[in-house]
Design brief:
The structure is a single chain. This protein is an alpha+beta fold. The chain folds into 2 domains: 36 residues; 41 residues. It contains 2 helices and 2 strands, in the order αββα. It has a two-stranded antiparallel ribbon with strand order 1-2. The longest helix is centred in the first third of the chain and has 33 residues.
Length: 78
Amino acid sequence: MNQTRGGDTLASMQRILIGIGLFVALIGLAWPWLSKIPLGRLPGDIVVDRPGFRFFMPLTTMIIVSVVLSLILWLWRK
């Protein structure tokens, strides 16, 4: 009986890793188009640029990415 549970866990881990791999491959293929999206340069992203020092905090970008990922994961669980 333990082999069945281990097999189920192994199979689900394999599906997760394959899904992550496909997602990364799709992002890589779509990168020429995705790089044109102004993420990281949105209003609300903080940039402090001084001689010898640069600070960048993409607040708006982080919020948008978080909302999109949350929506995708919520739809995936349904």
